[in-house]
Write a structure and sequence with these properties.
Chain lengths: 191, 155
Amino acid sequence: MAREIPQLNTGSMADISFLLLTFFLLTSSIDTDMGIIRKLPPPPDPNQENVDVKKRNVFNVLVNKYDGLLVQGRPMDITQLRVAAKEFLANPYDREDLPEKKVENIPGLGEVKVSKGVISLKNDRGTSYRMYVAVQNELTAAINELRDELSQQRFGRKFAQLTNEEQINAIQKAIPVAISEAEPENVGGGK
Amino acid sequence: MARFAKKGKRGVPGINTGSMSDIIFMFLFFFMVITTIRESSLLVKIKVPQATEVAKLERKSLVSFIYVGQPIDQKYGTESRIQLNNAFASIKDIREFITREREARDEVDRPLLTTSLKVDEETRMGIVTDIKQELRQVSAFKINYSTRKGSVVKQ
C-alpha cells in the first residue's frame, strides 16, 4: 500500500492572512482625494496685446487680506456670491448692464445663447486659503447650477448624471467655466 | 432501545476553520484594491478647507501632491512651509519636482498629470499664488484644490 502523504496543517494560514490584512489596514489610506479642479492659464505672452473686454462682460470679484469680499465694487457677503454670479452669467432678462450673449450652434443642443461673461477673481497675498477656496467654491457652484438647469431642461437629468459624452461636451460648451484669475500683485501688502 | 444507544462520548464537533483563511484573504484583497499606500509621511499640519462642489480625482496614479502648512515640529518655525515628497522644499524646487514626476509616468499619461494642492486652511494665499505661478511656468496646468466635503459658510 502506498503511504499516504500527511495533510498540511493550515490552521495558521488564517493567522498569517490576518497579519497581512492588519498590515495593509495600517499602511494604506482609503481617503479618496476630492477637491475643486481647475485649469491654470499658460504663462502670459509678452508679445500679446491686452484684449479689451467690455465692462459689462466682466464680473469683478476681489478678496482682500482681511477676507473681505468686494463684488463689482460693492462689499458682499459670501452667502450672496453664488446668486450674484449666477445672475451675471445667465442674464435671464437680457439686461443692458449684464454680459452679452453670442448665439452659437452646438452639436446636440442646437442654437444656444452663450454668455460672454467672464468672472475675474483677484485675491491678495494675505487672503486666507479658506476664504479663497470658499469663493472658488461659490463660483463653481454657480456654474454647476446653471449647467444642471440647462441639462435638466434639455436632457431631463442633472449634469453630473449625464453619461453621453456628446451631451456632456455640449453642456460644457454652452456654459463654460469662465473664471479668470488676475496676474498676482501685492495690493494689501504683507505676506 | 438499542438502536438509539449512544456510541462513544458525545461532544461538540469542532468548527471547520479551513475556509477562514479564504475569507480573510478576500478581505485582504478587497482592502488592497480600494486603498492606496500612503506615500509620504506628513511633516506639515494640514486641515484642508471645506467645499461643496467637489469632484473626485479619477486616477490616483496620475496625481502628484504638494503639501503646504505649518510644520508639525515646532523647531522648523510656525511659518507655512511647502512639503514635496518627504522633505521640506522651497518654491524653486517645484520645477524639478514636476519634471521628475513627469518622467516617472508613461509618455501617454503625461498630459493628464494633475497636481493636487493640499493646503492648510489657515495658510495665506501668497505662498499658494507663488506655487501656482511656478506650475504655470512648467506647464502643469491641471490642478486640484484639495478639500473636504462640507458647507463653506461659517457658522
